[in-house]
């Protein structure tokens, strides 16, 4: 009996059902070439293990221990705000540092009272859009909004975690700008920043987001997957109520 | 669901050695691998509500780490299209790799595998997941796992020669 290499591999990995396993075993006994191929599979497996297993005994870097032991939820309850995701890479760090700083300061300035009754509410340790802001994020399309609207929507995009995210500007709140991503039925705030000078220097999102503070532009560019949504994609996303398309898995 | 974020944190700490090993198999350099683990841990903590039971924690974390790696490779490939090759340096695979195949260590050989083969090899051969577990984690049919694993093994064996353990 002949066996494909995939079957021999599965044999070496202990993945075969009992019947096939017995057949392979018998064939190996009669055919040294089969035995050699199975042994090569097993050898490769043990070579990989002996190459990577020493990682298990390495000292764990302090920044990883600190990250695992940090308590984002409790920090949020105290009025600070969770860092944007994906903050570890050096080229992402500036954005997240700026984000946490700006958010902390703004949370303090706005006060928790504002957060519970105004455009932003705190629930279960998360900052969520509420009221007019939540409505605008869900309904308003950037290309057909009135320039007089209290909430201006900026860039809409798909994040690297497959969520829909949108930037916004609150006109009547000292030009407060922010970034929110769809979490279930809510818009979770990823970032808030006071709107300052227009973004300086060349940036891919400058045109669409020219009124956004640099830290926010940085956050968008850190989080975005692909290009910002065009008018049609934005309308499609709204029609599916900003539920992430199933194409990208995100456990 | 762990009873508190502190418990979850300590459970993640206990899994850090394995997460680092898997990340090393995916990302190659110590630095890139630990960056990946860092991203995965942060994502896990910010989405702990998605974790349905403690028993799922290891695979849930491996899945988050794997997705973070995929995000990273996508971003990198987008940057690679923009940046000058000189800025990329060591990130670019050595096209002349086979010329000195006999000198390759197992880790170097892993780094040369196509991404989709490397993740299967990492999950099954390094981390010891079953084919089915790997298929569920990657959200692909089990036959895809088998064929990618077979191709990855072939490529590794070719790069390492007949006696891989003697080179490492």
Give short descriptive properties of this protein:
heterodimer; A: 251 residues; alpha+beta; 2 domains; four-stranded antiparallel sheet; 9 helices; 16% strand; B: 168 residues; mainly alpha; Arc Repressor Mutant, subunit A; 8 helices; 69% helix; disordered C terminus
What features would you describe in this structure?
The complex is a heterodimer of chains A (251) and B (168). Chain A has 251 residues and is of the alpha+beta class. Chain A has 2 domains: 5-55, no CATH class; 78-239, no CATH class. Helices cover 45% and strands 16% of the residues of chain A. Chain A has helices at 5-12, 18-30, 32-52, 62-69, 72-77, 90-117, 131-139, 214-223, 231-239, and strands at residues 120-123, 126-129, 151-158, 164-170, 176-183, 186-194. In chain A, the strands form 2 sheets. In chain A, strands 3-4-5-6 form a 4-stranded antiparallel β-sheet, sandwiched between helices. In chain A, helix 1 packs across helix 3, helix 2 packs across helix 3 and helix 6 packs across helix 8. Chain A starts with a helix and ends in a 12-residue tail after the last helix. Chain B has 168 residues and is mainly α. Chain B folds into 2 domains: 1-92, Rna Polymerase Sigma Factor, Chain: A (Orthogonal Bundle), CATH 1.10.1740.10; 94-168, Winged helix-like DNA-binding domain superfamily/Winged helix DNA-binding domain (Arc Repressor Mutant, subunit A, Orthogonal Bundle). Helices cover 69% and strands 0% of the residues of chain B. Chain B starts with a helix and ends in an 8-residue tail after the last helix. The interface between A and B is large, with 49 and 60 residues.
